[in-house]
Amino acid sequence: MELLLDIALLALLLVTAISIAWIKDLFAAAMLAGIYGLLSAGFFMTMGAVDVAFTEAAVGAGISPLLILLTLALCGRYQRPDRNRARLATALVITVGALLISATTDMPFFGDANAPAHVHVAPHYIHQSMSEIGIPNIVTSVLASYRGFDTFGEVVVIFTAGLGVLSLLMETSAQPGRAIVHTQVEQQSRDIVLRVVAKVLIAPIMLYALYVQFHGEYGPGGGFQAGVIFAVGFILYSMVFGLDAARRVASHGLVQVLSATGVLIFGCTGLLSFASGKNFLDYSALAGNSVTGQHIGIIVIELGVGITVASVMIMIAYLFTGQLRNREAELATDRHQEIPAGAPARSTSTMHSLEQGAG
Amino acid sequence: MLLTSHYNYWVVIALMMIGLYMVIAQGNLVKKIIGLNIFQTSVFIFYISVGKVDGGHAPILTEGESLYSNPLPHVLILTAIVVGIATTALALALTIRIKRAYGSIEERDIQAAEELQERASSQMYARTPARKEQ
After folding, report:
1. Side-chain half-sphere of B134: how many Cα atoms within 13 Å?
2. Domain annotation covers residue B132
């Protein structure tokens, strides 16, 4: 049964990937990318990688297609057929693929318990983590404690990528003279079903994110998963009720400060154990008892990870939506100049601007 | 037997090659980024497949269970997914800026615009001999 599911999901992934490569309508490609993310989340679930499935479901099927759609709204929906390098690319891809497939004959069988990957450090994590760290979720133990330094680096990378997006898209978000036009652009979605459903859904999404954050030691979950789920809830709110409504809840400045705060919480935990004469991020320094110290350390750094991930994702969504709104405002100004009075109110849904982007 | 024991690896390679093909052959920058994402996900699938143990449970310790999947690839991929979306956002932000600077996100248009600009500046160069000496 498990094998059948594995074969079916991978076949579906392959079909989806081929259709993404084939299709010329980028809007459809973005939707297919969402399906691709959901399918791979399903695949991770069948492989027993519950934490990974969680993250991929929120990122691959949620945030990633959304960001692609926002980009398309600004850059145009249709791709020009351009096949100048298709032959070269096909030849290269077939050669590399054939070489890789011939290399797989040396690979250990799928699911083999004695494969080299399972004999080195994994047995230590599985057998010793309960006595050393004292929490049931091995993934959280490895992520936050055994490989804490690695995770710190990754959180810094996420923060840096957020800074990069900020520096690329910030300057036009604060252009003077645009504020007057903004009031004319209807930001809220007028679809009553969407608004009611979103209003009902947002609270459970946020609550679930908090549950995932603080239950990550005992079940699947942790800072990365909670951060993306929280951000998805927030982005949903900003999509349905408009950017201004979302900014009233968490201003742009607050989100920026929070994204740095998470990294600082993580780093300061490391420095604290440094200060008490232990290694960087050795949590046993945080309390008299080694296991209690590990507990405290993991809760604190997972909180830092959650804060940084959530606020970086929200910040990126803010910046992309801000760009879209500037474009809407520009178009509105142009139209305003053309038709002086009695200009009809324009719908500003993403679909609408997608069509405009195509023109 | 070889079919079921290596099926996952082959699908991973096929997905990876589709991603690579998109990055090379597609002229549209957004499509290239989607291709990179497919490439990236194929690596995730590879790691998780390697971490699978037959009959192993999800790596959350429970009473009376001794066989678990390898938790290490899970940790690596979990963080890689979130780092991946952050870097994808950076790439998309660059695309938006390229669109604003060149008016297009098709690779050919961008190259044409670059060449035009270069030719214009070199002509300027040739016309003003005073500059040439500098």
Report:
1. 6
2. no
Q: Which structural domain range is residue B38 located in?
A: 2-55+66-127
Q: With an 8 Å Cβ cutoff, are B86 and A162 in contact? A: yes
In this structure, the number of other CB atoms found within 10 A of the CB of residue A149 comes to 11
Which candidate from B10, B44, B89 shows the least CB-CB separation from A104? B10
Residue ranges of the domains in chain A? 1-80, 137-340
ipTM greater than 0.95: no
The dihedral region occupied by A166, where left means phi > 0, alpha psi between -120 and 50, and beta the remainder, is alpha
Task: Output the pTM of the full model.
Answer: 0.88
Q: Is B107's CB within 8 Å of A227's CB? A: no
**In the block, residue with structure tokens 């007028």:** A190
> How many domains does chain B contain in total?
1
Give per-10-residue mean pLDDT for chain A (359 aa). 90 96 93 95 93 92 93 89 81 95 90 88 90 90 91 95 93 50 55 89 93 90 92 91 89 94 94 88 85 91 95 95 86 72 45 44
The residue with tokens 């959530």 is A310
